[in-house]
């Protein structure tokens, strides 16, 4: 494969010499005596976006649930900043496919929910949330209700709420899958720009190969039944951030390799 694919940009030059922000070590998980995850290990560095890519049933969401502390593995551990957080909840953000905005609350209160859950006084929580509305492209929507927002704007609000829950690590489970192709393309560009600003370390789950390549610094490929990491691929962000990246030789080579691995 072209050696350009092995370059990873937009991260601090010593990122891979530093300790990972998050480490998952040797996870095993079974359901009803069926092995679902087999020896899954991965790492996430400060300000990095990685993707988990695999067919349905490969255990991607199970990995997320273990990282978030919602499930306990039979074997393996999860570390955040070097501390064992296996089985502990409330330490990383977790955004599901649907925006899950509460229809009866204005957007500012929807976004401020994580702060309210942490016992921040309501007006202070609203103020802290509102300070980020412009950065997230939501200025002027504070008093709007979810039904008044477009799908893309609702996802921005959900991402801001996720960010306010934890600025350490975010788990995004197919957050853009419900958007139409044009809206998804626009939000991808916005998402990459906002991530460069806030430098939120993120793990992204998707079934969309193009999306994984477009958004990630690294991609972990999972086999199915049981889910096992079979390859780790690095993405040349300099090329993938270009306007015509879908037309580049590097994109075609990387996509072909992923297709080959998944098949």
What does this structure look like?
This protein has 263 residues and is an alpha/beta fold. The chain has 8 helices and 10 strands. The strands form 2 sheets. A 6-stranded mixed β-sheet has the order 6-7-8-3-9-10, with helices on both faces. Strands 2-1-4-5 form a 4-stranded antiparallel β-sheet, covered by helices on one side. A hairpin with a 6-residue loop joins β9 and β10. The two termini are 18 Å apart. The N terminus is likely disordered.
How are the SSEs placed, and which strands pair?
Elements: E1 22-31, E2 34-44, E3 49-53, H1 60-67, E4 75-80, E5 83-84, E6 93-95, H2 107-117, H3 122-130, H4 151-165, E7 169-173, H5 181-198, E8 201-206, H6 209-215, E9 218-222, E10 229-234, H7 237-240, H8 249-262
Parallel strand pairs: 3-8, 3-9, 6-7, 7-8
Antiparallel strand pairs: 1-2, 1-4, 4-5, 9-10
In short:
Helices cover 33% and strands 22% of the residues. It has eight helices and ten strands.
Secondary-structure element sequence? EEEHEEEHHHEHEHEEHH
C-alpha termini separation: 18 Å
- Please state roughly what percent of the residues sit in beta strands, choosing from under 5%, 5-15%, 15-25%, 25-35%, 35-45% or over 45%: 15-25%
Poorly predicted ranges? 1-17
Mean pLDDT: 86
Q: Note the total helix count.
A: 8
Q: Write down the Rg.
A: 18 Å
Determine the fraction of residues in helical runs and give it as a percent range.
25-40%
Oligomer: single chain
Query: Reading side by side through the largest sheet, how are the strands ordered?
Result: 6-7-8-3-9-10
Q: Report the principal-axis shape.
A: globular
Helix/strand structural class: alpha/beta
Strand tally, please?
10
What composes the largest sheet?
Answer: 6 strands, mixed
